[in-house]
Amino acid sequence: MPYAILRFQKRKAGSVAACERHNERKKEAYKSNPDIDMERSRENYHLVAPPRYTYKKEINRMTAAAGCRVRRDSVMLVETLITASPEFMNSLPPAEQRAYFAAALDFISERVGKQNIISAMVHMDETTPHMHLCFVPITKEGKLSAKTMLGNQRSLSEWQTAYHAHMSARWPELERGESSMITRRKHIPTWLFKLGGRLDKQHDEIVKALSDINAFNAGKKRDKALALLSAWLPDMERFSREIQKQSDYINSLKQRVSQSEQYADHLRDGCYAEELKVQEANKRIFELQRTNQQLERLVKLIPPEVLAELQKSGRDRPRGR
Questions:
Q1: Average confidence (pLDDT) over 255-269
Q2: Strand spans (E) along the chain
Q3: CATH number of the domain at 3-183, out of 3.30.930.30, 1.10.287.990, 1.20.120.1810, 3.40.109.10?
Q4: For the whole model, what pTM was predicted?
Q5: What pLDDT is attached to residue 67?
């Protein structure tokens, strides 16, 4: 059940430079994002090349040319994240991945104006291929207004419906996703997905270390296995606890939807918004639960006495921020 993913993030002047540094890979290292493999950054490519100068200078040039009135708190840029569920995106051959991003670019161009798009960068150096498309929200009337272009919650829902119709014409297996701006999604944080990705990467190495249980009684092999596990187990336990919290959140949303349905028609919009939250939360928790199930299977391979020793050492370890 793969999902077509389209997400918007409004950026004011103060966050434009950081957005550019990330999208255009202008940093030498990304310690805060271990998912980025700098060795593969050469595989990244543009569908719309960025300006010769900075995003900020190009935005200033465009708004001045259009005669836009710019306030201190104006949204200067809308960053659009375009991708699909990891299992779908990673199953596509490179040419088909490029076709996917090109189709999405066509869709966005029709709606916001090709002339407003300042960069469309495809990242191939992270876990799942995705595109960062940035546009300046200048309307046909020459106003700088992200609100006019993106609209309210219902308008964003229509964006998602139209996007799904456009993309599923070629890839019919895609399900309709939801915008993070509709759901106001704060209940499943980005760090949790990054943590899940890191745990996945460590999984094979730990399985190899545990393949011979006698390794725990064999000098260096035992020490290596314990070192891997002692670093991995606290994160795994934190991940499992967070999964349970997200599941509880989804159940509370479902209950609110059920209660909303019992009220009169004037509360229908509230019920609709809650349903959207449930759909989005269910989609994201599904990916996390698959990782969690794999991690739970790995824990079962650890001898009980070793697990108890590791958990005790984890509790005794000083906690840092």
A1: 44
A2: 3-12, 45-48, 75-84, 117-123, 130-135, 175-176
A3: 3.30.930.30
A4: 0.58
A5: 94
